[in-house]
Amino acid sequence: MRNALDAAVEDPSITKDSDLTLALETADGYRFVYTHGDSSLETSYESASTSKWVAASVILEQVDRGVLKLSDEPSAYLPFWKAPGVTLAHLLSFTSGFSKEPLCLNLPNADFAECVERAYQANVDVAPPPGSAFDYSSVHLQIAGLMAVRASGAADFGELFAAWQARTGLFPQAAFDLPSRSNPRLAGGMHWTGAEYLAFLRAIYDGKLLEAQTRAAMLSNQRGDAMVVSSPVLDANGQDWAYGFGNWLECPTALGPDSFDCDAGHRNSSPGAYGAYPFIDFDRRYLGILARQGELGTFRDGDALFGVVAADAARWATLCEP
Questions:
Q1: Distance from the CA of 309 to the CA of which of 122, 140, 182, 254 falls in 20 to 30 A?
Q2: CA separation for the pair 135, 1 (Å, rounded)
Q3: By the 8 A CB rule, do 265 and 283 touch?
Q4: Which of 2.40.10.120, 3.40.710.10, 3.40.140.10, 3.90.550.10 would CATH assign to domain 2-319?
Q5: Residues 258-261: contacts with CB within 8 Å, 24+ apart?
């Protein structure tokens, strides 16, 4: 099956508009790596939305450490927050209703905490009720991240992330540094290597990251019956996937709020706008990362590229032998 997979990724009909590395790993540890151009597992790439899964995991660890609860409201940690009803769970599932993004999210010299307060002010009078709308906005994770910083006593998110790196051994060279380390955009402002992201996926798959209950919540549908206001997956490929905490559940189609045809234990992923695609396929017992940094807005291209080799990849993962 490896020969078939080699042939699939080398197919000249596949458009490769950027350097890339595709790395796959089975539950038993067999690995397939393909590189194109000046790329390897050690190449550092900007994350775009692939950072969402990482940021959510960092914040969820504070739940396991007893510092936060999923039912906590921002007002417990942020003095300026007066609106009731929004919880950490709403924020991590992008159903808080807070979606308008202030310009400061993209300014290197902006103050992280002040920017979160600006996001609050921009949304508080117009936000729909918590849990009623799913919006793929960066604001949710900024608020959740500040809650985690304040609850943990860390100086900033960089310090919180560094402590997580030390405890887990994951992403040792990575950083949340865009637009800057002092004002990181948690939903899309990271640098990582393919090797680092693959190790992160393996830790999730093996159950070594987060307590079992927290991990299960992260990987299961948390969207509920929220109306979809903004979904790049729906826009790009017409699929209405469910959402967990910081990652997608790849349902072929969402049949309604109470009848998704998938839940925890199928394929979870966190694709980014540069076309990178990290995933865990629990049914076929393998995981992988398509590491690349194409033009902004090339999510569709990365998804299409992996789609061409997906069937061969699945067969390789199912049938590969020592």
A1: 254
A2: 40
A3: yes
A4: 3.40.710.10
A5: 258/225, 260/221
